[in-house]
Amino acid sequence: MTNIPILSVSRLEKSYPQAGTAPLKVISNTGFTIFSGETIAITGQSGSGKSTLMALLAGLDTPDSGTILLKEQNLNRMNQDQLARFRAKQIGVIFQQFHLMPHLTAMENIMLPLEILKYHPKKIHTRTRRVLEQVGLTRRRDHLPAQLSGGECQRVAIARALVVKPALLLADEPTGNLDNNTGEQVADLLFDLVTSSGMTLIVVTHNMDLAHRCQRCLELKKGKLQ
Ligand SMILES: Nc1ncnc2c1ncn2[C@@H]1O[C@H](COP(=O)(O)OP(=O)(O)OP(=O)(O)O)[C@@H](O)[C@H]1O
């Protein structure tokens, strides 16, 4: 961990409209700073707004007000093209349900972000091979997601998130869909890769073993991260 802020959130607000009644305020005037290389767990009761917060931090949803600065760039001041490119380069996301492209092989799934960013084909192949090796899937590289186990699918998803070397890695219940043993192996791999590369990780989880692997554990309560 360093003392360089990588993510600065201030006065963030997010509500959802509700039929016939006042909007549901999910994120309420919250602010926090995350430093480069930190590993952060976000916990909170079901419905407390963890996935909502992750979607805002990932630039997948827009807040009602407030600012999200990643590497001093304001996510909500970018146009759609700028945001799409910035997200592809700077933000890796890992979901509970893997979200792999079913018709692409493990290797093709991992290559995809590099292709979207129009990297040179040689660089795409070198990076993809290296990451496949890091997640131990070299021999499974030509398999489709349906031919892989849950743990293998999540390793592909981790590789896909890491292959662009993003500034920020967001993981929403990354072990939630796996049995305990497999979940532990995936968590070992995730933390090994994150700490060896000095990447910044925010993980949302109900799993306290996973949360306690992080340097800081924050709780989302009454719309605020505390
Ligand atoms: N698109 C939406 N439209 C309306 N309400 C929503 C929407 N998305 C989430 N909500 C509501 O916002 C609240 C927070 O939901 P969110 O999924 O962020 O919570 P969570 O902490 O991630 O929950 P869980 O731990 O169960 O996944 C919930 O009351 C949910 O019903």
Automatic annotation (TrEMBL):
The superkingdom listed in its UniProt entry is: Bacteria
> Does the entry feature the keyword Oxidoreductase, yes or no?
no
Record-level GO cellular component terms: membrane protein complex; plasma membrane
Entry's transmembrane regions: none
Stored SUPFAM superfamilies: P-loop containing nucleoside triphosphate hydrolases
Query: What keywords are annotated for this sequence in UniProt?
Result: ATP-binding, Nucleotide-binding, Transport
A molecular function (GO) held by this record is:
ATP binding
Give a single Pfam family match: ABC_tran
User: Domain ABC transporter: where?
Assistant: 7-226
Q: Does the keyword Transmembrane apply?
A: no
Q: Which family does it belong to?
A: Belongs to the ABC transporter superfamily. Macrolide exporter (TC 3.A.1.122) family.
Q: Which PANTHER family match?
A: IMPORT ATP-BINDING PROTEIN, LIPOPROTEIN-RELEASING SYSTEM ATP-BINDING PROTEIN LOLD
Q: What is this protein called?
A: Putative ABC transport system ATP-binding protein
